[in-house]
Amino acid sequence: MKDWENPAIIGINRLPTRANPYSYDTATDALTLDRENALMHSLNGQWQYRYQEDDEKIDQTFVNPDFDTSSWATIPVPSNIELFGLGIPYYTNTQLPFYSNHNSSLPDTSPLITRANPVTSYTREFELPANFAEKDVILHFGGVDSAFYVWVNGTKVGYSQGSRLPAEFDVTSFVKPGKNKIALQVMRWSDGSYLEGQDMWKISGIHREVLLLARPKVAIRDYFAKPKLADDYQSAKLEIRPFLTVSNNKALKDWQLSAELFDANKQVVSSQTIAADQVMEAYPQREIIQFDLLSLAVQQPKLWSAETPNLYTLVLTLKDANGKVIEAKSNQVGFRDVRIDKATGKLLVNGKSIKIMGVNRHDHHATRGKALTRADILHDVLLMKKFNLNAVRTSHYPNDPYLLELADQYGLYVMDEANVESHFFGGQMSNQPQWLAAIMDRIVRMVERDKNHPSIISWSLGNESGMGPAHAAAAGWIHDYDSSRFVHYEGAQGQPEHTDFIQPPRGWYWVPEKLDNLGRLTPMANPTDPTYVDVVSRMYPSVEHLRGLADSPYIKRPILMCEYDHAMGNSLGNMDEFWDLIWARDNLIGGFIWDWMDQGLEHKTADGVKFLAYGGDFGDVPNSGAFNQNGIVDAYGNATPELWQTKYIFQPVKISAVNIAAGEINLQSRLFHSNLNQYELRYQVLEDGEAIHQGRLAAPSIAPGENKTVFVPLTKRGYLPNKQYWLNISLHLKSDKLWAKAGFEVAKEQFLLKDKQIPTSAKSFSNLPTAGLTINDNAAEFIIENQHAKWRINKESGLLEQFVYQNNQIMTKPLSLNFWRPQTDNDRGGWRTASNGMQVWRDLPSKFEIKSLKVLSKTADKIVVQTLLGFEDKVNVIQTLEFYANAAVKVAYKLDIDTDMPEMLRIGSQMAVAKQYQEVSFLGRGPFENYSDRKSGAKVGLYQATVDSLHTSYMVPQENANHTDVSWWQLTNTQGSGLKVVGEQSLSMSVWAWDQAQLDKALHTYDLTESIENTLNIDLMQAGVGGTDSWTSLAAPLDTHRVKPGKYQYAYWLVPVNAK
Q: What does the record list as GO biological process (predicted)?
């Protein structure tokens, strides 16, 4: 049996995983925490490689020092080889590309790799650093996918698998002074791949950094530093368990091991020295081994939390009998306490109840795949902080340890998740003894690598791998080894021995229609979870499911959504409702949005056009299509409209009106560990979107969870009847933070002070020149015109087909009703729009029958044309067009839609306008795209943009660019001429550079070819975007954000804009 097809072989000669790989010559160097000062030599850079398609044809002669590799090409390390044309990337959710039975019910062939298994051979030479002499030399691989052998100078050193954790090998006896050769043989697939079935691109290679490290012969191999806080949080201890590398205790005679704790100013706050041979004590037969061989006491410690990431630096120094420093090691320390209040189900950090406002994060970059740079990781962390996220789940594998360093420094709670997902096989691996060692290895090594990071508040046993003894065993090990964090695993659900357990039907988890059949079973509770997990974790509950969980008499633990609000495409529509509920229930501790980044890979068409590829675009079979475009940032790391909405939902203060006319507002702190007085309050009075009054106030002192009333001085100027007035309130950083400068906006709210009078006559547009109107009634059309404007109404369709103003053709396609939208992912997944009858709305306006078309009145000042339209007596429309001498046109609709008709996606009208009209300004919600269920974070204002800049480029083109609560919308050319739409009620509006059919049909951005006109949407309303999930009925928007059959009416004005 091949090593890489044997679950019993998970590493050969691999060193035990340790928390901190860096060794320093002096305590001064260690105190810098700068690994560039450590005994470290990077082997990143260009390596030579050879790629072979099948592991049956492996040639290992290349490992020999004298093997000629001059003909081999080079590849950067770290990297994923498939992104350099070596094999193809596979994107699958649950299927296994290496498993020939991925689409059949053939007999199980695990752990074998039953398709061709590509192998990449790597080599490079390096010079052994002079300061590594007389030291042990360690070869460190941060991450290699999926399994590999390593040779040094022709001698096999070892083997490892588990692609998201480091593998270290002692190569002291293999290296020599001067030039050395390292060789790797990397198998794309291994038995370990059965435990790496995550929803992601399956790409391989040396994807994390390669380092050459050195340490003394007698060294601090590892240590565990546990902070412990007194119940009153006024004092603390740092308990340290060190481990040494030494041949025997006698070698340590008169040696000393010191621990020093430094504050942020590099001042020692506590220290202790012990005899080094104490560390080598034998393990007792019965008693519990003493953990705190070193213990550092601290009075009035500055506590660590995501809001207050106060850090100390621990320096351990090993000295020989002569007092000479042999080695120093260091790490950041945060004093924080994580507990669960069993009486209330609250999650407590430092005694304070917190909410997890988090996101799931995959390693991903559009061009680098999973081979991220430190700059990429820092970009993610900075963006999370700036958008008010306070937590990250490393879905579904340990991330690069640099992410944890940054989380410690910048302040993010981390759920550290093990690289265990056997999604395709469910719980098979956890229940089969032959997989126990591999599963335990992945979980234990994660804990050992990351145990000293204060940002980690939870260990997660993996993802979607069923439930079985392996999970129970791993949880037991963690609880005994590190009780300072809570244990999470969503798959641990349901106890058949429970007296209230009812076996649910298949598919019950997400389908609410079946819940009524489950009798006593609380939705998704089932009714309790195994005791080896500390929280009740669920994926993609609806708001009502979540309410049922919170109110369940069976659940006594905190309730966490490890994944929720599936942000696939244009989505994330239910955040307001989720978080209104979460804030109202102590035992709902929040959750992690799915997910952080769209997993598109930059690719090119045959014509060289760049686009973001998804499953199937590389010829990968099997694949899961575009199911990986779920990010609240795009594949290049840019904020999406969903991220802007997230920032608002997670902002650290709730701002509400008390007596808004008097400027009286209430500030409710949603901070957990810091005071609201760290912010400055700014206010602004807007008149039709423009600031007419503004100022600043110091935010009052408001403790976490408390609230105070604040008075904002409003303008003494009177409000004009034809103007709309808003009060904007925002909070800004008073001083610099590590992640943002002073003045950065962290929160905002808006209140309507006075609404405007709606336009009811053409006199509202008195700035336009007037001229007498005439109407020409011929067999095919009505032609209405004056010396400034001309309109045509087609008698066969009843539609306004032409609008020309001062010789500029504004309208290029008719103004028609519209009930459809380019399908979002949630439309397809939630409503099943392809099969539920809603397709009737796609082209229904083209099927209208004209029941009546007549001129109601005609004068030189005003002409009114009314059309009665009908569809099978199910949809009846009265369309009234009023033309005025100043060239303004009032468009009014009355609709009567039979309740037997299916729901609509919008009620509105649409027309094409000439391409020259590219400049957009509007008074409405912005600046980012928003919808009825994702608009609270978008504020009413006066915005300028272009047609192109309003477009949101989803990987699969779909409905986008909408803005709600629009008073008016203007499209002009570069000279300032064009068209203005003014609503007699709030409108939803958008403009696209393509027509609706193009957007609806397109599967990739390259399908959106250049159009000769723009499409203008003028809607009364549009359905929300939904997104509880993206594959069941829960994907559709909540009931309050749907467009249902009934009676509607709305009106707006089309007003020409004259640059003169």
A: lactose catabolic process
Query: In degrees to the nearest 10, what's the CA dihedral of 840, 845, 849, 855?
Result: 160
Type of residue numbered 109 = T
What gap in Å lies between CA 178 and CA 126, rounded to an integer?
Answer: 8
Find the helix packing angle between 374-386 and 401-410, rounded to 10°.
Answer: 30
Residue 1059 phi, psi (nearest 5): -60, -25
Q: Is the peptide bond before 822 cis (omega within 30 degrees of 0)?
A: no
Class for the domain spanning 219-335: mainly beta
Quick check: 521 pLDDT over 50?
Answer: no
> pLDDT confidence of 104, banded at 50, 70, 90?
low
Architecture of domain 339-647: Alpha-Beta Barrel (3.20)
**DSSP assignment of 65-83, as one string?**
TT---TT-EEEEES--GGG
- Domain range list for the chain: 3-215, 219-335, 339-647, 651-754, 762-1057
Angle at the Cα of 236 (from 235 to 239), degrees rounded to 5? 160
End-to-end CA distance of the chain: 84
Quote the CA–CA distance of 72 and 134 in Å, as a whole number. Answer: 34
The average confidence (pLDDT) of the chain is 94
Asked, as a colleague might, if the bond just before 1056 is cis with ω within 30 of 0, I would say no
DSSP structure class, residue 699: P
Residue 963 CA to its chain's centroid (Å):
23
**Owner of token pair 């993996």:** 462
Burial class, 266, CB count within 10 angstroms (exposed 0-12 / middle 13-18 / buried 19+): exposed
CATH class in words for 3-215: mainly beta
Q: pLDDT tens across 434-483, in order? A: 999 999 999 999 999 999 999 999 999 999 999 999 999 999 999 999 99
Q: What is the dihedral of CA 205, 207, 209, 213, to 10 degrees?
A: -40
Contact 768, 887 (CB under 8 A): yes
Are 598 and 612 contacting, i.e. CB atoms less than 8 angstroms apart? yes
Q: What is the pLDDT of residue 103?
A: 59
What pLDDT is attached to residue 766?
77
Using one digit for the tens of pLDDT, what is the confidence trace for 716-737? 888 998 899 999 999 999 999 9
745: closest CA among 761, 729, 762?
Answer: 729
CA triple 642-643-645, angle to 5 deg: 65
Tokens 């100013």 locate to 265
C-alpha to C-alpha distance for 462 and 445, rounded to whole angstroms: 13
Quickly state the pLDDT bin for 768 (edges 50, 70, 90). Answer: confident
**Which residues are identified as catalytic?**
464, 563
Asked whether 668 and 654 are in contact (CB, 8 A), the reply is: yes
**Reading across the β-sheet that carries 11-12, which strands appear in turn?**
11-12, 155-161, 147-152, 179-187, 119-127, 45-52, 73-77
Half-sphere exposure of 226 (CA within 13 A, CB side): 15
C-alpha span between 789 and 775 (Å, rounded):
12
Domain 651-754 and domain 762-1057 have a common topology:
no
Q: How many CB atoms within 10 Å of residue 451?
A: 23
Could you tell me if 417 and 397 are in contact, meaning their C-beta atoms sit under 8 angstroms apart?
Answer: yes
